[in-house]
Design a protein that fits this description.
Blueprint lengths: L1 E6 L4 H9 L4 E7 L20 E4 L6 H11 L3 E3 L6 H10 L4 E4 L5 H16 L4 E8 L9 H14 L3 E3 L13 E8 L5 E8 L4 E8 L3 H14 L5 E3 L1 H11 L2
Parallel strand pairs: 1-2, 1-3, 3-4, 4-5, 5-11, 6-8, 7-8
Antiparallel strand pairs: 6-9, 9-10
Helix pairs in contact: 1-6, 2-3, 4-5
């Protein structure tokens, strides 16, 4: 039984993680800024023995999570998005002392999409690339962390690219080294990400649609299991997927 310290326990994803726990996982302690029965409002107050932290709170609380992880030598799964450059630096620094898992999206299939998009970019030189992401009206960050993660994967394969999310302030043709990222917000959409490659007279599209939050919760629990016993270091979905391939899962 893996004992989880769940941060952001009262949020949508926190509740989804709690509901997804089965025989292998148990929520040993809960933390959330919204005070409620049985929930700590500060991670530093947690006394229960836990095996791994799963954080679905907010990017500006990541520093607190990392400090607790380092102090107690507990691996952490950082599932929040919207981190600043400084916060990302803090994550990398903490990973020198404790095992830290970070992903812009906890869906295994989305991370496969990243691999496919990178492979396509490496073979489709000269194609224009655009990313369209759609989320519910209450999502705070734009572009989504997943869209940026996809763009980063493409850039690793295709070379340096300029990210553009607003073309209204210029009047010029599309540069060759540009990748457009477009954010759509409305309703209750859980999340959609589409990568489109535009060639001369042809177009290739790779798309992922999330039909519910359960898939992200399952991915977070899978990451939590993956992190047990890991030495200090920075881990992501590439590492988890590589292990799954090796095991034939």
């Amino acid at each position: 039984m893996i004992r989880i310290l769940l941060v952001g326990a009262n949020g949508r994803m926190g509740r989804a993680v709690s509901a997804a726990c089965g025989a292998e996982h148990r929520i040993a302690a809960r933390v959330d800024s919204a005070i409620s029965d049985g929930v700590y409002n500060d991670i530093s107050f947690v006394l229960e023995k836990c095996d791994v932290i799963v954080d679905f709170s907010s990017h500006d609380y990541t520093k607190n999570v990392l400090e607790y992880a380092e102090k107690n030598n507990i691996p952490a799964v950082i599932a929040t998005t919207g981190h600043t450059d400084e916060e990302l630096r803090q994550i990398r620094e903490a990973a020198k002392n404790v095992a830290v898992f970070k992903s812009g999206n906890m869906s295994v299939a989305v991370n496969v999409l990243c691999r496919l998009a990178a492979e396509a970019a490496s073979m489709l030189g000269g194609f224009d690339i655009e990313i369209i992401e759609t989320h519910h009206r209450n999502k705070l960050d734009a572009p989504s962390g997943t869209a940026l993660m996809i763009a980063s994967s493409i850039e690793e394969a295709a070379g340096e690219l300029t990210y553009v999310s607003d073309r209204t302030q210029r009047s010029q043709k599309r540069p060759d080294n540009e990748i457009g990222i477009h954010s759509v917000r409305g309703g209750t959409d859980t999340g959609e990400h589409e990568v489109i490659f535009f060639g001369n007279g042809e177009r290739l599209s790779i798309k992922h649609v999330a039909e519910g939050r359960e898939l992200f919760a399952q991915g977070a629990l899978r990451a939590a299991s993956f992190m047990i016993g890991k030495p200090a270091g920075y881990y992501d979905m590439k590492d988890l997927l590589s292990q799954s391939v090796q095991k034939g899962e």
